[in-house]
Amino acid sequence: MSDRRYPTPRQRLRHAVISAWRGGDEGPVLDLPTQNVSDLVEKVIIQAGLGSRMKLEEVLAAWREIVGDFLFNHSRPDSIQRGVLTVRVLQPTVNHALTQELPRILKRLQTTLKNSGIKSIRLKHG
């Protein structure tokens, strides 16, 4: 499959008008190589600042499996900053239960999500 594009007459006219408006010939814009969307997705996600949000969605999916339904209903991963996962907890008893299990939960998160970069977990009431 060739990376070469063949512009339509309308595209050539548009390119000529834009080049004239800009004040010169800027080269063969229509002859640029094509790029696959799959190659650009990761760059776009990083530039838009969605990389941490994507990680958080992965953590949220794994959180239910790791802590169970009851603790999942009373706690939610809130953010990941500099390797620290902040988890919002609704009740003091849930905070205590999670505090007792933090080393185990952290180890399971690191095992399940190898590339998440989570180094520790911080519980936040509210």
Question: How does the SSE layout of this entry go?
Answer:
Layout: H1 9-22, H2 37-47, H3 51-67, H4 69-73, E1 75-81, E2 84-89, H5 92-112, E3 120-125
Parallel strand pairs: 2-3
Antiparallel strand pairs: 1-2
Element pattern in H and E: HHHHEEHE
- Provide the CATH top-level class of the largest domain: Alpha Beta
What is the share of helical residues?
Answer: 40-55%
**Apparent shape:** elongated
Q: Any guess at the CATH architecture of the largest domain?
A: 2-Layer Sandwich
User: Which residues sit in consecutive blocks of at least 5 with pLDDT less than 50?
Assistant: none
What class, by secondary structure content? alpha+beta
How many beta-strand segments?
Answer: 3
Characterise this structure.
- The protein has 126 residues and is α+β, with helices and mostly antiparallel strands.
- The chain has two domains: 9-46, no CATH class; 50-125, DnaA, N-terminal domain (GMP Synthetase, Chain A, domain 3).
- Helix content is 54%, strand content 15%.
- It has five helices and three strands.
- A three-stranded mixed beta sheet has the order 1-2-3.
- The model has no long low-confidence stretch (mean pLDDT 80).
Key traits:
126 residues, alpha+beta, GMP Synthetase, Chain A, domain 3, three-stranded mixed β-sheet, elongated, DUF721 domain-containing protein
Short summary:
With 126 residues, the protein is α+β, with helices and mostly antiparallel strands. The protein has helices spanning 9-22, 37-47, 51-67, 69-73, 92-112, and strands at 75-81, 84-89, 120-125. 54% of the residues lie in helices and 15% in strands.
